[in-house]
Amino acid sequence: MTDRPILMFDSGIGGLTVLREARVLMPDRRFVYVADDAGFPYGAWEEPALRHRVLELFAGLLDRFDPEISVIACNTASTLVMDALRDRFPEHPFVGTVPAIKPAAERTRSGLVSVLGTPGTVKRQYTRDLIRQWASKCHVRLVGSDNLAALAEIYMREGFVDEEAVRAEIAPCFIEKDGARTDIVVLACTHYPFLVNRMRKTAPWPVDWLDPAEAIARRALSLLAERKPPPLSAERADVAVFTSAQAEFTTRRLMQGFGLSVS
Description:
Helix content: 40-55%
Structural class: alpha/beta
CATH class of the largest domain: Alpha Beta
CATH topology of the largest domain: Rossmann fold
Number of helices: 11
Number of strands: 12
Number of domains: 2
Strand content: 15-25%
Low-confidence stretches: none
Distance between the termini: 24 Å
């Protein structure tokens, strides 16, 4: 019986939102969480350089950990690199993270939807193709935030965040048109659910905040072979890997809170 882990990959700690849901659905599985903190944040990278970086990282990660499946728990990387990953590693299954535009279009009553992501995610043609395919009858506003991912990292490590800074970042999501108001905001970055309570507090009116974490975890589960791995032991504990190899004390403490030992 093999014991190959599920690999979760993000530029920072945002993928922990997906890991949390995956553990609920797959409590007997082992996880390796990889944070490319040396490359954080991804939103400002030039596309060719980021594509090359992620491909080279995975060449090493797949060899080191031999995961059963890899989850790219990052919208920016997924919208840019998924096809290239599948082309380079055709035998390995990947699950990506894309903006939840289809469910937003299905749920909206006002027809006004905002997609809140990093600058990299909102400018991708992939995102615009999703809007054209699934939300052509809606008014979709794309909002690229330069700072929210970093604010989420600060909040998770230090326990507080500047609420006025959060308010400023989300303000462009809220529009009024012909007597209607934005009623759904798609969280197109896995970091953002960590700040959703602060977003609710600082938003000008209530909206539904769509978090794709559960859907990503369910997709991963659907692709896994049906098997029951052996019980977890100390030697099989879930681990976190940081590409900088320099995780600070607050980061290590956060990882421990999520049941991850820092490798």
